[in-house]
Amino acid sequence: MMAPEMDHSPGLSALAFTADSLAGEPVPRRVWHVESLIPSRVVTLLQGDGGTGKSILALQLAVATVTGQRWLSQDVRRGNVVYLSAEDDRSELHRRLDAICTDYGVDLGELTGLKILDVTGVDSVLGAADRQGRLLPTDRWRELEQIARAWEPVLIVIDNLADVFAGEENSRPQARQFIAQLQGCAARQNASLLLLGHPSLAGMASGTGSSGSTAWNNSVRSRLYLERPKIDGEAGPADARVLSVKKANYSPTGLELRLRWSAGVFKTDEDAGPLRGIDAEMAELKIEQTFLRLLDEYEAQGRRVGDMPGSTYAPTVFSKDPSANGATRRGLEAAMNRLFAAGAIRVEMVGRASKQARKVARSEQRSGG
């Protein structure tokens, strides 16, 4: 790698304009790559702990972009993609793309618009600090820009920050300089630039997903965080993830998508609509777990509960139990109906043939609760 060179920007006079010059011009429309999640012409930082699946999520987005598919039930801007991979090599990318294409119902041969740059095992640094501590673009960066100009992508993915940034992660000036470098490329190419990164231990513990200097969060226009959900401090299902908006300059923050890992890809409920919040869904899951726990306890004690209104109606009986964690009869009733629909519970007929009674019981294949 050659020594970094200064990036000579235009002088201030060339960049200046008076506000009245905007009069009469149409107001530019905000362009999104994914509405409310990934804006165009700026840098979006997607963070997640190792193994959560952020690289797969980004690769799914790349495939959706070049094929015109939806991504996590969201519409995507269609066009070419440049994907720089410093973590996963050609073989691993092949396996992952095969699973994604199978899920989308497309052939690998249709991915003509996806340009992959496999820089695993070679120099992948895009920004390096000089002796004065300035973060400057490298020859590798200039190669990437040249490829982007020729390919005309609407999406550029860089995986991963730790592999391409040869500066001090906790240095505010260097973090801001590197994001500015990426930002300039996104604007020049009229593309979205998705940068993948790992959160710090403190960021994971706090749930913010932040890492290093606060300049990383402050400099990007959008920041997403992929994590495994927790319920009452305990880890949720192994195949569950939450994708949340931690920073958004152009849309509301706090938006969350509940994802599920299945057959090599992440999926969300198509019927849930765009950006369905996870809070209500997690609350429903907690009540379902409460219902199943109480059902098991009552079964062990030989106490029957039923599915029909009356003295043994399960939602009414459970709502009065001190260990119901405040669950209401209505909430437990809705949980019972969902569990019936999912096949987690069923009705058994018990007692003598002349006087049988209905009993709610776990199905033979229990769902983990």
Distance between the termini: 54 Å
Write out the strand line-up for the largest beta sheet, numbering strands in chain order. 5-4-8-10-3-11-14-15-16
Largest beta sheet, briefly?
A: 9 strands, mixed
Report the portion of residues in β strands. 15-25%
The total beta strand count reads 18
Detailed description of the structure:
The chain is α/β, with parallel strands linked by helices and 369 residues long. Helices cover 33% and strands 23% of the residues. Helix 3 links the parallel strand 4 (80-85) and strand 5 (114-118). It is elongated, with a radius of gyration of 26 Å.
Write a brief caption for the model:
This protein is of the alpha/beta class and 369 residues long. The protein has eleven helices and 18 strands.
